[in-house]
């Protein structure tokens, strides 16, 4: 349903920071789009990161985290000060809606909004299992989540985890693709490279990818694996380096580091391998699809890959933590290039439903619906 926009609303986003990551990328893209359309947009963050996404100069960035004096207080007091600062921001700015991204931001926003008329839209950005099922979550969710005016999920699996009251007022909205991944010309020839993009971090199970590719390389010694992504400093990079060294694989497995030109780095690869044990809706997978890459991906909870992929139609879906299946999937795409190209061509159609304009309009509709209900 399309709601008439009688006036440009004042929209506030709240999250921890804008340092490069999945939720931060979505917020920066959405905020930029709303600003471009003439909305007054604010982003309230807890801190400033070292490597952050760029935002439109028309967007106001407001610090709602701890100041130097606050840092000297106890952790318990700091907890309440974070809520106090966010509440002060809401009272001063009086946005028409505040949209919180990620777990702690969701909780803070709902706590800060007590006895205020600002509607809060929360957003679930990861697998709820393991992230919204601790004892503290089981205490906070029944108290806070009923106060949410709405909730945006990325997958049906996320939505099914929560109680019916939250499901009822929710929407499933995909992450918006960056424009630079849309309309990239199809390569004339593909290189003999298997690629992956994303942080080097434990839940992406890149060690399994390396071990599977080592077996693929025995069968296809002219192929190499390149992983593009920064170090998360959780020890994963060291594990990967150890696997490479132990298997004398340095000539054909490369850790490329972060890149701002993935649309060029990945575009002519033979295939894209996605190995995560769990994710929300991975931007990296959407980007690989938009580029038309043949893909083999784990069917990880909470259903991100399955939300956008159909096995054998626009990619290959395999069980999580199944190294043999990953190896066989890569071999299948390497050995059947025409079939692989067909999957890639079908994957490229993600651009039709996940382009920035389409996703912006879904968010715009939902925000208008929530704000209209709140006025009534």
Automatic annotation (TrEMBL):
Annotated ranges, domain Glycosyltransferase subfamily 4-like N-terminal: 21-128
One Pfam family it belongs to: Glyco_transf_4
Span of domain Glycosyl transferase family: 189-349
Chain coiled-coil ranges: none
Documented EC number(s): 2.4.-.-
Enzyme class: transferase
Keywords, comma-separated and alphabetical: Glycosyltransferase, Transferase
Example GO molecular function: glycosyltransferase activity
Keyword field contains Transferase: yes
Record keyword Transferase present: yes
InterPro entries: Glyco_trans_1, Glyco_trans_4-like_N
Protein name: Glycosyltransferase
Native source organism of the sequence: Kineothrix sedimenti
